[in-house]
Amino acid sequence: MRILLTGKNGQLGRCFQDVVLPTNHELFAFASSELDITNIEEVSAVVSDIQPDIIVNAAAYTGVDKAEIESEQVFLVNATGPEILAKYAARLNIPLIHVSTDYVFDGAAVEPYQVFDKTNPQGVYGASKLAGEQAVAVACEKYIILRTAWVFSEYGNNFVQTMMRLAKERDELSVVADQYGCPTYAGDLAQAILQICEQYKQGEPFAWGLYHYCGDIPTSWHGFARTIFAKAEALGVIVKRPQLKAISSDQYPTPAKRPEYSVMSTKALSRFGVQAPSWSSSLNFVLDKLK
Ligand SMILES: NC(=O)c1ccc[n+]([C@@H]2O[C@H](COP(=O)([O-])OP(=O)(O)OC[C@H]3O[C@@H](n4cnc5c(N)ncnc54)[C@H](OP(=O)(O)O)[C@@H]3O)[C@@H](O)[C@H]2O)c1
After folding, report:
1. In ligand 1, which atom is closest to the CA atom of 33?
2. On the chain, which terminus has fewer CB atoms closer than 10 Å, C or N?
3. Ranges of each domain in the chain
């Protein structure tokens, strides 16, 4: 299969390259400097040159707080870019695999969000990702959108890397304990995307549409930090874990409001044989890599 990957230097982009490497698929991976998804001419040239069987969009504007003051650029990357990719996918009659976020929800739920639940993003980033979902659904028929959450990996900036850095700098740390979600390893997400690509290649009919994909057991940022430090200490990644203090969101104000509860149900994805991955096991793997 000829797979076109955008955003190759991001967490998902790098993990996707890792999971495709041992397969015999042909991967054509592009960084933002090589393929800007908001540039129609660039997308057109790359797509007609490569003639992919499938497009995987790992490109996004992911700076949730910075997004609040860069609204135009955020919507360009997270809504217009996916729309352009979707239009070219439709033109070639090939699928687009796109990734969205739990931040499309307002977090007022008390049980896991289903794909059909009402969206109500609380910030510019979430609104731009929702606009991207809608633009993709209008522009092409063959699409899979995977909403994911709390992405971590051995690459780039993420909560695990931040905790590792802070563990070396501080003896005490305050972490928000009233926001709940499901940490997701980018490598597990990449594997799930590859599995979906391979199932598509096996033949139609195919269940196009919107799905949720995230780690299995909900936790708070405080709970996630506690697990990270316990594992990191046991694995010898850090010498000593800092004292963890649980605080409320009010005590840690951020420019963009986060959903209080963004746990998502991954049930719908079982039709592809994809289950919610154990983020705890994947965390061991990532910490081992960071050692
Ligand atoms: N990170 C999370 O916690 C999280 C949570 C929920 C959902 N998601 C979603 O999951 C997906 C993957 O996220 P991630 O964490 O892997 O993101 P990431 O690490 O921030 O990577 C995003 C990549 O997109 C590239 N990019 C930005 N603008 C672009 C453009 N105009 N054209 C082409 N590439 C562009 C960036 O390149 P440059 O660095 O060169 O700008 C970067 O390499 C995204 O759709 C994101 O919205 C992420």
Report:
1. 40
2. C
3. 2-157+183-217+263-278
- Using the mean position of ligand 1's atoms as its centre, give its distance from the Cα of residue 6 in Å: 9
pLDDT grade, residue 203 (50/70/90)?
confident
- 273: confidence class by pLDDT, cuts 50, 70, 90: very high
Contact assessment for residue 99 and residue 57, using Cβ atoms and an 8 Å cutoff: yes
Amino acid sitting at position 150: W
Q: How far is the CA of 102 from the centre of ligand 1 (A)?
A: 15
> Kind and range of the H or E element at 100?
strand 96-101
pLDDT at 205 over 80: no
Helix H, strand E, coil C: the string for 35-98 is CCCCCHHHHHHHHHHHCCCEEEECCCCCCCCHHHHCHHHHHHHHHHHHHHHHHHHHHHCCCEEE
The atom number, within ligand 1, closest to the CA of 157 reads 19
C-alpha 76, offset from chain centre? 18
Q: What is the pLDDT at residue 183?
A: 98
Mean pLDDT, rounded, for 262-276: 95
CA of 72 to the centre of ligand 1 (A): 16
> What does the block give as tokens for 262?
């963004």
Nearest Cα residue to atom 44 of ligand 1: 60
Does residue 188 have its Cβ closer than 6 Å to ligand 1? no
| Residues 190-202 pLDDT 10s | 999 999 999 999 9
Of all protein residues, the one whose alpha carbon is nearest to atom 41 of ligand 1 is: 32
Instruction: Check if 149 has its Cβ closer than 6 Å to any atom of ligand 1.
Output: yes
Q: Supply angle C-alpha 18, 200, 83, rounded to 5.
A: 80
61 catalytically annotated: no
CATH topology of domain 2-157+183-217+263-278: Rossmann fold (3.40.50)
Instruction: Give pLDDT tens digits for 228-266.
Output: 999 999 999 999 999 999 999 999 999 999 999 999 999
